[in-house]
């Protein structure tokens, strides 16, 4: 049995009178692909925002490899190796694809002002490494032909891939994808499923995913947590979730 990487316990998030997340618990194992699903407004993105440091939870624990990350600001959570994408793609749209990948590595490239000014050997080496990494991820994501194109001018599916590349280039432990299939065509969805699988197999990343596309969720996830009105209502393998009466009811109630 592999080790738990992310553990969320008794997580609550209140907005005024609304308990958007109500005692959510989950544990994601090393190199697992774990999905959170649920009807609109169930609290999925709020859970993501709490884990990634965009919200400070009202209550509850969040640990990464046994270390508490609850309540840390997002940049500190990112420094622990937890990175995420957003429901609406967030890129530097006026920069080129390549520049987006170089900027994503700014933490790794030595930013010491003096070493930058004098272009020390170490600084130049770090710059070269950043460029080589960028080239690698352009290839993995099939974006090499668009390296010098403005990110904002890419087709939507390519923007989504660039967003994932920006995460992966930082060599994360946990990759959090918020509705990565939204806006993709059926062919792109199939490719996305293969990509998620490939990222886990080849780069050892653990994946936490929110997704409405059931074919993708059922095809790629090892375990699924279902939320409704802020509460966890089911947790299990895809086959069990597919046949869970509470889950079926929650989804039927939505349509
Ligand atoms: N910053 C906020 N202030 C007030 N209410 C919020 C805030 N963020 C989320 N909510 C509310 O919390 C509830 C859960 O929202 P959330 O976006 O987490 O749901 P979701 O499951 O991700 O939905 P969807 O699938 O539609 O993206 C909703 O009722 C939403 O209006």
UniProtKB/TrEMBL annotation:
Q: Where is the ABC transporter domain?
A: 6-254
This one is known as Branched-chain amino acid transport system ATP-binding protein
- Indicate whether Nucleotide-binding appears among the record's keywords: yes
Q: Which GO terms describe its molecular function?
A: ATP binding
Ion transport found in the keyword field:
no
> What are the top taxonomic ranks of the organism?
Bacteria, Pseudomonadati, Pseudomonadota, Betaproteobacteria, Burkholderiales
Similarity field: Belongs to the ABC transporter superfamily.
Q: Which SMART domains match?
A: AAA
Taxonomy, superkingdom? Bacteria
What UniProt keywords are attached to this protein's entry? Answer: Amino-acid transport, ATP-binding, Cell membrane, Membrane, Nucleotide-binding, Transport
Family annotation (Pfam families): ABC_tran (PF00005), BCA_ABC_TP_C (PF12399)
